[in-house]
Amino acid sequence: MKPAPFRYADPGSLDEALEVLAEEGAKVLAGGQSLLPLLSMRLAAPATLVDINRVPGLDSIEVTGDGVTVGALVRHNSLLHDDAAARSQPLLTRATANVAHPAVRNRGTTVGSIAHADPSGEMTAVLALTDGSVTVAGAAGSEVVGWRDLFVGPLETSIAGPAVVTSAFFPALPPRSGTAFQEVARRKGDYAVCGAGVVVTLDAGRRVASVRASYVSVGLTPEVHDLTEAVAGSPVEKADWAAAGALARTLVDPDTDIHASAHYRRLLVGVLTERTLAEAAAEAAARATRE
Amino acid sequence: MTGVDTERTIAVTVNGVPREATVPVRRLLSDALRHDLGLTGTHVGCEHGVCGACTVIVDGDPVRSCLMLAVQVDGSSVRTVEGLARDDHQGGQVLHPVQEAFRECHALQCGFCTPGFLMTIAAGLESRDNAQEISEEEVDELVGGNLCRCTGYANIKKAVRHAATAMKDDA
Fold first, then answer.
1. Do B3 and A9 touch (CB under 8 A)?
2. Could you give the domains of chain A?
3. Predicted confidence (pLDDT) per residue in A44-101, tens digit
4. Which of A143, A190, A236, A268 is disulfide-compatible with A194, CB 3.0–4.6 A?
5. 0.90 exceeded by the pTM?
């Protein structure tokens, strides 16, 4: 099908964008890789599309000692190939590699997929797992919104009124830590049936100090699960990652849909947790040795 | 105050030729190419970004033309399957190495998905250093975003390797 009729503006500044967004039924268009399918399937019919692609200053990736700030117009493919971002927070590259296909990653934006708040999105899970936040520009100025206050439900955020999410901030990976991200999908690049991102942090004696995980296509909004108790204090080489996987299975609350039952998703959570933790632990151990 | 429109006139370079069209703002790029510019080589399959049949190259990058609005390519440069073959300066055309490889390797049957595969693969191979032999992983990544229901992909992957070799020799 074709999109229902709408009005279109492509303002050249953030202020102008906010002005048009104040109209009833106006919606931001960035990469469009989630919004345009919704329009074509007539699941959404905004009165006005405000295309922010001509707004200057939103297309940069800034890396500091604190972490990575990704502007609203940074395409998935740019983030995927940003070495400085990958060094600061390796989850960004690892997760982005699982976002759709190259032709979609060339247009789709990282910040847009977070604002879209799809529970099957990779970057929403990464924002949660890294304890990240977004910056939201509104009529009254900019404010920083942490991930816990951002996600309200599937495809729903707490952002109200005329506003543009101008950037997302992903804190840097702490010392002696490792990450991993894996998905099970029907075909590579499809929405994941289940995905898992993990961060393992060791103490100075190379024992497991902290284990956290976040899942894709599991639950209605991104959540972070603390799995530390299953393996706390174990020397990294001897940690029982299967036990952490078993704990994860008891913590998640997946849904059944046409592609997988809740039971099957729960099993995948266990398997993917065990696999990603082993991978992340090896990386944490290697980093601990280097650091 | 910025203009809020229901119709716009866009100027876009398509396959090296400057074109102009007046389109409703809701016109998808895929439909603008086919209906407004008469370039029906770009095929429309699923119309929600899954099948890849409508893939074209915008300012050097392959994108789904069903997931862009025509008004968004105002001022841009677009390559479609019609622009792949080159003029042979003798009144005919020479196929692009990827097209030649598809013919050689029997990488198409019904041909519906073919324009999307050709544009995705051409963009991928033109932007890589073909002096390096292409890996199986790269081949999978190149064809993984496009659906073909006839060939089973084996011959398409063969054509990618064939074209990569041909483009190395050309360079």
1. yes
2. 7-51 (3.30.43.10), 61-171 (3.30.465.10), 177-290 (3.30.390.50)
3. 999 999 999 999 999 999 999 999 999 999 999 999 999 999 999 999 999 999 999 9
4. A268
5. yes
CATH H-level, domain B7-83: superfamily: Beta-grasp domain (3.10.20.30)
Q: At B130, phi and psi to the nearest 5?
A: -75, 0
Residues of B in contact with A188 (CB under 8 A): 140, 144
- A222 token code pair: 């991104």
CATH of the structural domain B86-170, one choice from 3.90.1300.10, 3.40.50.300, 1.10.150.120, 3.30.160.270 = 1.10.150.120
Residues of A (40-79) whose Cβ lies below 8 Å from B: 40-41, 48-49, 51, 53, 77
Residue with tokens 């699923």: B46
Nearest residue on chain B to A36, alpha-carbon basis = B67
Identify which of B79, B126, B124, B122 has the alpha carbon closest to the alpha carbon of residue B99. Answer: B122
Q: Is A204 on the interface with B (CB under 8 A)?
A: no
Q: Are A169 and A68 in contact (CB under 8 A)?
A: yes
**Does the beta carbon of B26 lie under 8 angstroms from any beta carbon of chain A?**
yes
Cα–Cα dist A42/B27, whole Å:
14
Cβ separation A5–B66 shorter than 8 A: no
Q: What is the pLDDT of residues B114-133, one digit of tens each?
A: 999 999 999 999 999 999 99
This model of the complex carries an ipTM of: 0.94
CATH 3.10.20.30 occupies which residues in chain B?
A: 7-83
